[in-house]
Automatic annotation (TrEMBL):
Keywords: Methyltransferase, Transferase. The keyword Methyltransferase applies. The lineage of its organism: Eukaryota, Viridiplantae, Streptophyta, Embryophyta, Tracheophyta. This is Methyltransferase domain containing protein. One of its GO terms (molecular function) is methyltransferase activity. It comes from the Eukaryota. SUPFAM superfamilies: S-adenosyl-L-methionine-dependent methyltransferases.
Amino acid sequence: MEMAANGATDCKYSCETAAQTLQWIHAIVDFLKPYSFLTNAHVVNFFKDRLWEAIDKEWIECLRNEPVENLLQIPSGVVQDHWPASLKKFILTLRSLVFPREQADLQTVLPGLNISSLGTVLAQGMNPKKKHEVEVLSAVVSYITNSVKAHTIVDVGAGQGYLAQVLSFHYQHSVVAIDASSHHGRVTDARAERIKKHYASQMHKSGPGKRSLIVPKTITCHVMSIDTLKDLTSITRFNDNEHDHDNVDTELQQPSCHGDNKTSVVLAGLHACGDLSVMMLKTFLDCEEVKAVVSVGCCYNLLSEEGFDNVDSQYGFPMSCGVKYAGLSLGKSLRDLACQSAERWRCLEIDDGVHNFELHAFRAAFQMVLNEYYPEVMTRSLSIGRQGKALRRLQKRGTFDSRLIHKDNACASLHHIRLKTEGKTEPEADDSISSLFEKAPLSGRVSHSGSECDGIKSVDKYSLFLRYSQSGLCHLGLEPLQDIDFPRIWKEVEPFSEFIGLYWSLRAALGPLLETFLLLDRLLFLQEQGNTIEAVMLSIFDPALSPRNVAIIAKKN
């Protein structure tokens, strides 16, 4: 079976061969070099380091007057005719280096593939996004499993078992669902029992000649190393009618992937988090029993990186020799940035985008407070979290109660706020704030130019900044000092707050490019193994439903 690589008209690069993939990687590295003022900056330091001054003045003067909707289109590569030529070149060149995210024609790439629509029983509990992902990925995994004639599928990072159950009940494969959460394992088992009863009832009604039911086996295990995942592939042969739940120790002792048994396995992962997707690819190469892998990754911010995070030799980036020699380190800030989705930006309502820009302004202004009055905390990596939820409620009500800034009330509303200080020596970007587009777009009511919209004239930006700061100090365990001059700090930064939206839009445009770089590294890692491995990278989901839609599919020849 031949698997063709994905392509699109707006991308002039190809990754069908290792040489082509490496050429693409080098083009990305070369493009990024002149823009260190974007890649090396942290938006939380926007005011403190006066980051807007590094941007071309012509770009600033142009974008400061642009409607918010035009800024939200920048990560998608959309430019306006009246923009400066250098700005248009930056955006369009960047976009030409991004892996195409339009859903591939899977029937052409995988001839004979049949994607089935899930019925209400199998789709129970799934939102439209999850249903779409499971429908497509289960069909692809089943197709690959049949093509390599594998006995068993191992669903890595199975969550509540949606993918595993469709592969078992609908496609009739033997499946092992692995997840670190024992709660997820119990949910998977309970859900499988309900589905099993439905199918058993249908089979009883259909009379003699019924087929046997295949129920997924669940294993709770923290996959902390490649050896652990390799060992789990030896626990894949089980009675099709058996349904049990195993608790497996995190560290298994005797590696068993030596190729002397006849079990054959396909590894599958739907948004296997961080290093878990990397472990899948390495296990695919190292374990003779694993005949193919289908991996859709996510959470690049949680990847371990060589030279960072105090990791050992089993780091998640870089994987390929080509990227190691290319010499581009990312660090946590750029791995965070790789999680930005152009599709989510493009689909945001204007008010949601404005509110997100405001939150970045509040966070950067709060950094000024910390820098001036609490310099000792600047040696830590601070994440003060999703305070935007509380501010959103205030803005939607159209009123602001000054009592909310009091410490007790502030603390009561901060159940989503986090402080991360372990093992860090340098302040980094607030990944919770910068990931709001990806995880929880918020609503606001103030225009990009700073004028107020109807219905919220009683909401004062300074008051919101004050609440944000009081809340942040509370959660960081810092006693509010009597001499903090909040009005002065806000007065100093407010004239430049209009620049933060355009700056963040330009920086966020690098997100899809950095994700492409990380994915090409994984693909090249497989391609560097030579003709024994056949590997492709495909956008398998509709990006409007599932922006993290790129699958790496590989099999052994």
